Amino acid sequence: PSPLSYIRQPISSVSSLDMSFTERLSNLFSYLMFAAMDKFILFPDQSRILKKHFPDAPDLSDLYYNVSLILLNSHESLNQPVPFVPNMVHIGGYHVTPPKKLPKDLQEYLDNAEEGVVYFSLGSNLKSKDLPPNKRNAFLKAFSKLKQKVLWKWEVDDLPGKPPNVKL
Question: Which family does the similarity line name (predicted)?
Answer without folding.
Answer: Belongs to the UDP-glycosyltransferase family.
